[in-house]
Amino acid sequence: MTEPIVRVERLTKVFRSYRREEGLRAALKSLVRRKSSEVAAVADVTFTIGRGEMVGYIGANGAGKSTTIKMLTGILTPTSGDVVGNGFVPWRDRTRYVATIGVVFGQRTQLWWDIAVVESFRLLKEIYGLSEAEYRERMALFDKVLGLGAYLHQPVRKLSLGERMRCDLAASLLHRPPLLFLDEPTIGLDIVAKANVREFLEEINRQEGTTVLLTTHDLADIETLCRRVIVIDHGKLLFDGALDELRDRILPITSIVFDVKRAPDARDLEWNGRPIREVGLHRYRLDLDRREAAPATAVKEIVNRFDVSDLKIEEPEIEAVVKRIYQEGIS
Amino acid sequence: MSAVRGEGTPWRAALPFARIGFLNMLAFRARYYVGVLTYLFNVAVYYFIWRAVFRQGGSVAGMTLEDMVTYVAVGWAIRSFYFNEIDRELGTQVQEGKLAMNLIRPVDFQTVMIADAAGQSAFRAVLFTIPIAIVLALVFPLKPPASPLAALLFLVSATLSFFLVAALNFLVGLVAIRSKSILGILRAKYLVFELLSGLLIPTTLFPQPLRSILFASPFPHINFTPAALYLGQAAGTRALGLLALQAGWTAGLLALGQYAWRRSRRRITIQGG
What ipTM score was computed for the predicted complex, to two decimals? Predict the structure, then answer.
């Protein structure tokens, strides 16, 4: 890994929640003493992010993704643990720190609702203390890559979600932050808009070396953008590593599906201790564990053994991998 | 070019927030034409009450009817300027989770809130306070400022009132972070502020020892102090002393707001998301 830009160590956030009980008596009692319970939204999470990396941070609803992002952006103060981002402790040096980061919350906009988009950008220019030249150069880039020019003079409330998201992305990158946090940047967008957002992020990452940490429910985001994923569940870090490695660990099954011209001999329907099943007319499938045998070896053998007219290799979908994690965790 | 902005230069970075406050007010201007009538009505009510009190002539606590009506009118006029809803705004931001959007900007939070309110007050001063003052001066027999110096002191004091109210409202708003529901507190606050600030009754009319207690609190400086300076009830060193006291309370409460904000931040839970 390159030089770390974010270091997270044993990060923990405990929320105290008050339980509402039914009935008048309980309501009166709660005036004096409320029953509270503590929930660790994030528990003992440790990881580092290298400069220029794009890392996907995934987990089910309520897994603690947003809470982590909020601590990493200086919004929340952790119960315990350490974070250093861009050399700052986010919640302690908040104002200086956030001048060096960009943040997008997909569910909200940081732009001012009732005024024209360009006014919001002008204000951000002032807030970040950009010169006119820097500002113009930046806006020209955003217009080229995101096509911002078309709706710069509309108020935010009149924009579609996709347009708004482009504006928010541009706003978060106006001051050229080396570090960008995105909390569900593609939520609610249509396919075209999602593709736009992904292309833009790739471009920024390549051109400016921007480090990106993003949470998402859309695994296509991860597949196109992130080589590395961090999986969190019930506040705990479950997995941190390459996307391929995650796939190998959770669903190490590769399927080889092939069609034959002539019905095969029943004795041949087995390879390396695994059955070859008939799954359709003249169609067979071998599910093999990548840890036991390389798919290429199996393919070679199949082609030798049968009169194959067509063949394809199916990798498990990342969706299936994540569904499995959400349901069962990582063993 | 990493533009690092710390607490060192807040006011330059704060100006855009004031501009936003001003721009946002433009969207709601219709509300203010109605507002002028509301203020006129309020002053009218107190005018008739005081006229009844002064029926036999004479003076109350050294104030004639004309003094009293001027006091009331000046009070309401500056209220239209110093008024802000930082507390409600803070409460809403906590409730709707919008607070996060202010925390990702490299400007001190208290500065953002007060700058935004300052933009709104600048708007009010032009489109609200001045029309109200003109209407009131036409309808009621008002006195001009006691002297040019009194007028100047009054303007300084009214500006300080804005910051004093802003500092107090910021503190009230911080309660929202703890309670997560603020409406009851706000309702109580308006009553307390209007009574203790000297808006409804000049603070000098309160009986002892309540009067002394009040003058040891920041509240009379919201309304009584600027109005008294306008009328020339305090002049010379006494006027300056009053102004210094007002400035001291303002600075102190702003500092307390900073401290309380830092303490509250630890317990912020941004709702939603």
Answer: 0.77
